[in-house]
Amino acid sequence: MPFKQFGFSQQFEGVVIDTNLLLLLLVGIYDKNLINDFKRTQKYDIDDFERLILIVSYCENRIYTTPNILTEITNLSDGINKDNKFFAFIHKFLEQFMEVANSSHSIISNNLKIFLKLGLADASIADISSEKILVLTDDLDLYHFLSQSKPTINYNHLRRFR
Predict the structure, then answer these.
(1) Residue 136 CB: number of other CB atoms within 10 A?
(2) How many CB atoms are closer than 10 A to CB 6?
(3) What is the pLDDT of residues 78-125, one digit of tens each?
(4) Which residues contact 26 (CB under 8 A, 6 or more apart)?
(5) Helix, strand or coil, per DSSP, at residue 141
């Protein structure tokens, strides 16, 4: 099992990927060469992108997301959306996501501590995560909140295994 070193023995039925990493995944699928050129993904490289692809494959190629995460993705994509091509790509690619759209009130009520500290997008991640859905983040605060109760991996820990 690929996640055994993190204490997980089960297979996951999907993965919810935090905003920065999901943006890396989308940019890499769109055009790997943009990873190093786009300001929002410069801290990553092609190996990081390929590692994300591998993680998704270990999670039955099923990516869970929320409208809150996708809103952040589009807000962060302003520098790459030349001629609206990147947004058109996202629109087409969204068919492959499992999008869970819970009301903001419900998300906040169920995850008040996370919302108060980290905001709505991170609270939405907590809201849809479960024992069967892995959370992948490079946000240390979110990792600390979720790792006590949900299967969560800090992506920076994976980068050690290069």
Answers:
(1) 24
(2) 15
(3) 888 888 999 999 999 889 999 999 999 999 999 999 999 999 999 999
(4) 73, 89, 90, 93
(5) helix
Residue range 11-161, CATH number: 3.40.50.1010
Half-sphere exposure of 48 (CA within 13 A, CB side): 25
Burial-class residue 114 by CB neighbours within 10 Å (0-12, 13-18, 19+).
buried
Q: Do the beta carbons of residue 17 and residue 52 sit within 8 Å? A: yes
How big is the chain by its Cα radius of gyration, in Å? 15
Q: Are 86 and 38 in contact (CB under 8 A)?
A: no
Domain boundaries, the chain: 11-161
Looking up tokens 């001629």 gives 83
